[in-house]
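User: Predict the structure for this protein chain, please.
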Amino acid sequence: MERKKASDFPQELLDLLDGYVHGGISRREFLDGAQKFAVGGITAASLFQMLKPNYAWALQVPADDKRINAGTATVPSPLGNGSIKGYLVRPANASKLPSILVIHENRGLNPYIEDVARRLAVANFIAFAPDGLTSLGGYPGDDEKGLALFGQLDRAKMGEDFVAAANWLKSQPDCTGKLGAVGFCFGGGIVNLLAVRMGPDLAAGVPFYGAQPSAADAALIKAPINAQYGELDPRITDGWPAFDAAMTQAHVPHEGHIYKGANHGFHNDTTPRYDEAAAKEAWQRTLAWFDTYLRA
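Assistant: Here is the predicted structure, written as structure tokens:
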């Protein structure tokens, strides 16, 4: 399928998609709303197909890339769902390195997030991408099925799974003890949760368009935070000023970047919401932040 850009679609349609992606409306309601944009022989269903992820587009680092070693690991999570399985990637011939937890969107561990983990390994970090859907059989290979499974999970227990994964990764013998976290959408919110929960045990966090903690919780954060937002994503981005103020008051090193004309999900290079310029700039900032705070 030809690759489309966000600018190929009306913003109102992209906002409607955001509502569907985050569970605010059903697929049927999305299709009903999309009907007004179904012109010139294009149906609402075909618009939906155009906006769905195409995971072939996300392959920046092949799974068999000689620069990395990739496999899986299962982490005990007694306070969560019992255990959480994930994708573990390290540079080939790596010695002790800083580690980064990679946290997926609200679909589970899909191929895009696995590729992000490989990109971090190529940048000389150990990366672990846990699958929050482990207790329900893992990411089902289809985003819509993944969304349905996500709705069945106890969010508090899943949060504990990610805390367990973070602590496990930090304690691995080939980790220097410096741990970072990066996450996208739901995963961005989990990065913020980890920063609240782990205090100084998290050395740095980069939440991409993640829900922000309350001011009271933000006061507990010790990890330097570099938050990435899309200008056209007010549902999340409007929460930045209060988060910024809370971290300033807590004397936490932090930055926030709002990318002009970018939608929610702008880093995800499998959908038309991908914004190449914003994604590349945000990724450079991500790597620089981790280099600063994890390699010191």
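The chain has two domains: 6-51, 60-294.
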